Amino acid sequence: MKKLFSTRYSENAVSFSLLLLRLAAGGLMLPHGFDKLIHFVEKAKDFPDPLHIGSVASLSLVIFAEFFCAVLLVAGLMTRLAVIPLLITMAVAVFIIHNSDVLGEAEHATLYLSAYVVLLLTGPGKVSLDRMLGN
Fold first, then answer.
1. How many angstroms separate the CA atoms of 59 and 51, rounded?
2. pTM score, two decimals?
3. Taking the CA atoms of the chain, what radius of gyration do you get in angstroms?
4. Domain boundaries, the chain
5. CB pairs under 8 A, 24+ apart, for 86-89?
6. 7: DSSP letter
7. How many CB atoms lie within 10 A of CB 89?
8. The 3-state secondary structure of 54-106, one letter per residue
9. Most exposed residue of 15, 25, 64, 81, measured as fewest CB within 10 angstroms of its CB?
10. For residue range 3-30, what is the model confidence (pLDDT) as tens digits?
11. Burial of residue 66 (number of CB atoms within 10 Å: 0-12, 13-18, 19+)
């Protein structure tokens, strides 16, 4: 009980927490990207184009972030670089697609955005390929 009210933390607890955050934020994003990837042709016609670069280009960038960068995030490989496209994708979803409706339509995207900001600032933690490779 005393530990619950303590303000102390251990490096191992922080690294384990970062592992859980990486697995959750990356692993839960993977199905979104995979669905877009396997239904690329159908989705490309009607995909939003908030940055005015074309629907196909927008969808391609979102797939890159939501699938490929999420895989890197789960593995903890190039974590800070991999999280940047995810962060941008979620920022566009929150602030442009959902008009900053953070308590409504953009609630899930806001949660992802928050997790990606934390991972950008902290890095992957000890339990990651980045750490094992010495990055």
1. 11
2. 0.92
3. 17
4. 28-133
5. 86/25, 86/29, 86/112, 86/116, 87/113, 87/116, 87/117, 87/120, 89/61, 89/62, 89/65
6. -
7. 25
8. CHHHHHHHHHHHHHHHHHHHHHCCCHHHHHHHHHHHHHHHHHHHCCCCCCCCC
9. 81
10. 778 888 889 999 999 999 999 999 999 9
11. buried
